[in-house]
Amino acid sequence: MRVAALYDIHGNLPALDAVLAEIATLGCDRIVIGGDVALGPMPRETLARLDGLGERVGWIRGNCDREMGAALERPPDPAKPWEARLRWAAGCLTPAQCQRLAGLPLRITLDIGGLGPVLFCHATPRSDEEVVTRLSPEARLAETLAGIPERVVISGHTHVQFDREVQGRRWINAGSVGMPYQGRTGAYWVMLGPGVDLRRTAYDADAAARRIEASGFPDAERFARQELLAPITAAAASERFEQMSVQARAKSSA
Ligand SMILES: [Mn+2]
Q: What would you give as a GO molecular function for this chain, any one (predicted)?
């Protein structure tokens, strides 16, 4: 069995379409959507495209899938980064679609020839928002893997690909289809079975940026520039996320 894992699409339909075209030429049996699928400039169209793929798609929930539905059920919180974008994207979907996204499972396991049972989660097996990067100390990763029998774990959330060995297990970050922090344009994902193939699919980011700017997404021009046309490097993003993680952990234990 070959499984394509597409994480953090973030409503970037042109990036998704480029990856789906590549998958069609490579061939695969299943597609796992690794969360954070709709929060971005083309939420409705992105969901429609994936729903059109039918039964071979498996879904798990990302933190943004959970937060989109919740955003419309609470007063606006201007202190939250991306508040306007959250509310806009949630408003593009039906309440039923928001509920469906918020109700997706935190993780799924698929048996993949050559790899064995593979656990798919958005951030870590126990959380849809815990930060793990290529720089995270092994002891912290070991803590998040406690009680997990699978020898291979696939995650996303931090939008930078990695392939790490942790306590005899292999932990792979699939990267991000729609908002990768890899220092160059493209859509990042992973093909699994029998090996692990971390991939970058090139697409026309300038054309995508023009579509995004016409979408009505809040602050779309800035999104297109920062997230598509001139993304920060993997090293810079990993350091930034790691610092945020250390601060969040210090705050929660204080
Ligand atoms: Mn994300």
A: phosphatase activity
Q: How many domains does the chain have?
A: 1
CA of 37 to the centre of ligand 1 (A): 8
Tokens representing 144 are: 């998040």
In whole angstroms, what is the distance from residue 164 CA to residue 146 CA? 17
Distances (CA, A) of 119 to 103, 123, 165: 18, 12, 15
What's the one-letter identity of residue 202?
A
CA–centroid distance, 145 to ligand 1, in Å, is 21
122 Cα–ligand 1 center, Å: 8
Element spanning 128, H or E: none
How far is ligand 1, taken at its centre, from the CA of residue 216, in Å?
20
The pair phi, psi for residue 88, each rounded to 5°, is -65, -50
CATH number at residue 249: 3.60.21.10
Residue 3 near residue 31 (C-beta atoms within 8 A): yes
Q: What is the DSSP letter of 136?
A: S
- Distance CA(153)–CA(117), nearest Å, equals 9
Dist. CA 12–CA 220, nearest whole Å: 12
10 alpha carbon to ligand 1 midpoint, in Å?
7
The residue segments making up the domain with residue 117 are: 3-253
